[in-house]
């Protein structure tokens, strides 16, 4: 789940541990708490943050060669978190295994710099061709290491489903956002305001005519 306060306080210690003793994929915890992801939409843009556990980040990094070989010694000038953040292989892995599609067409992905990845995860934005109402979300990260890995996806803006689980056998889910995500509020509010203004103007004209008639 999202890191609790205590875990956040331990992030610097975790980063040191990542640099000193990165674990293998077999030492990860696919049967522990699942990774989490948060998704939101506004206009034609989808935002998504994927947050695995600290040791799962290490397993991911080891699987793509983000760390040096133990036989060659350990570089202590960078933390494990920094090595992950600077690894092109890690970025390629994430972009290959996490994506959003609209009407069968991939939305253009942008992966933010992997700074503070232990605390904030991998943060994506996806630019779709049209205002977002319905998209297919794919999260297949870590399941290549072990099929028991899964991710709990939670919508931060009103959507159906509000929460769902992605697994090795079902790594893609369709998410339908409320009309407000596509800018429904920004369109509806001016229309309501216009109707109200016209109503007030009509009432004012009626009162003026009545007043003029009474004076005549």
Question: What would you say this structure looks like, in words?
Answer:
This protein has 216 residues and is an alpha+beta fold. It folds into two domains: 5-182, no CATH class; 183-216. Helix content is 36%, strand content 25%. The chain is built from seven helices and eleven strands. It has helices at residues 5-9, 11-20, 54-63, 80-86, 88-97, 117-120, 184-215; strands spanning 35-42, 45-51, 98-102, 105-106, 108-111, 122-127, 134-139, 151-155, 159-160, 163-166, 172-177. The strands form two sheets. The chain has a six-stranded mixed beta sheet with strand order 5-6-2-1-8-10. Strands 4-3-7-11-9 form a five-stranded antiparallel beta sheet. Strand 3 (98-102) and strand 4 (105-106) form a beta hairpin. Helix 2 packs across helix 4. The longest helix has 32 residues, at 184-215. The protein is elongated, with a radius of gyration of 25 Å. 28% of the residues are buried. The model is unreliable at 1-27 and 184-195 (pLDDT under 50).
Number of strands: 11
Q: What's the average pLDDT? A: 80
CA radius of gyration is: 25 Å
Largest sheet: 6 strands, mixed
Helix content: 25-40%
The termini sit apart by 76 Å
Low-confidence region ranges: 1-27, 184-195
H and E order: HHEEHHHEEEHEEEEEEH
Please state how the strands of the largest beta sheet are arranged side by side: 5-6-2-1-8-10
Discrete helix count: 7
Label the structural class: alpha+beta
Q: In what range is the share of β-strand residues?
A: 25-35%
Shape summary: elongated
Count of individual domains: 2
